[in-house]
Design goal:
single chain, 2 domains, 15 helices, mainly alpha, Tetracycline Repressor, domain 2
């Protein structure tokens, strides 16, 4: 544990009982919302039919599983969260909840979501959900995050699994199309999080987290953002090239990708916090828009 961190593991405000809002905060709802959205689109893109109740169950399990992973992440990283301004008010470091409660909550949600997915939907989707939770908690949170600046590159796979899980919920299988959806989010994750790391560098440095700007410097981080963006844009066009997305999506992917490249290039030239923030927020809009157009085009095509 970093020196200067408050004592964690028991509630520092003994007169405070955690409320529903504290438990909900443990689930990282902002992250969960994007996870749910990409999973829904993955389900729409998947060939075949699925009963609405089973579809709802699958999305619920993915949402709960993602929240459980976020909860276990907060449980393990409570000492680091206490050292960073943007995370210091989370339930555990702020003293509104003890770590043991968060651990039990996360384990219970993880177990319930995986069992429900496996028993109510299918075993393939259940196995993928279990792998996603373990990957995020064990591989990313425990193993990579405190040890290597490549943490977000490898660990980003956890956030790329939801559309693949949803695809498997419909088909009972994992096909090349599902892998392409996975690949798109996987390639998007580094430039997205490294842009955040550029304007949160002081927080990461204070907590001793070896994010790329802390270890390799801001210039190298900007360079890597541009490289990964240039690699990501061709991957974004693959759904159209492979025939499971239409021309509207292709034009959207090329247009939005060009803007992303422009912002990444601007980031290497301007080297200011404003451009880093602009790139970060645009990256969220970018991924949301790609999946929205992809899923919307399929839905419209089915109605015509």
């Amino acid at each position: 544990m970093q020196t200067g961190a408050p004592t964690l593991g028991q509630n520092t405000r003994e007169d405070y009982l955690p409320g529903a809002g504290d438990f909900f905060a443990l689930l990282k709802p902002r992250v969960m919302s994007l996870v749910i959205f990409t999973a829904v689109v993955g389900m729409i893109m998947a060939p075949g039919d699925i009963h609405p109740v089973i579809a709802f169950t699958a999305i619920l399990c993915i949402a709960v599983g993602a929240g459980a992973a976020g909860c276990l992440n907060m449980w393990y990283e409570a000492d680091l969260d206490a050292l960073m301004k943007r995370t210091a008010d989370r339930p555990i470091p702020s003293g509104r909840m003890d770590r043991q409660t968060a651990l039990h909550f996360g384990v219970a949600l993880s177990t319930a979501s995986v069992l429900m997915m496996g028993l109510s939907v299918n075993y393939v989707a259940g196995a993928l959900l279990l792998m996603t939770i373990l990957f995020y908690v064990v591989v990313y949170t425990v193993w990579l995050k405190r040890r290597t600046p490549m943490n977000i590159v490898i660990g980003g796979a956890a956030g790329a699994f939801p559309p693949m899980i949803a695809w498997a919920a419909v088909t009972g299988d994992v096909t090349i199309e599902a892998i392409v959806l996975f690949g798109l989010i996987f390639m998007w994750t580094p430039p997205h999080f490294w842009a955040l790391a550029l304007f949160s560098c002081k927080d990461y440095k204070a907590a001793g987290i070896p994010m790329l700007p802390v270890v390799a410097g801001e210039a190298e981080t900007r360079k890597q953002i541009l490289i990964y963006t240039l690699l990501m844009v061709p991957v974004s066009v693959l759904p159209w090239f492979m025939g499971f997305a239409g021309p509207v999506y292709a034009m959207t992917a090329i247009g939005l990708g060009a803007i992303f490249i422009y912002l990444s290039l601007s980031l290497t030239l301007k080297k200011d916090v404003k451009t880093a923030k602009k790139t970060f927020f645009y990256s969220i809009f970018y991924l949301f828009s790609l999946f929205a157009v992809m899923g919307g085009e399929v839905l419209i095509g089915r109605m015509i």
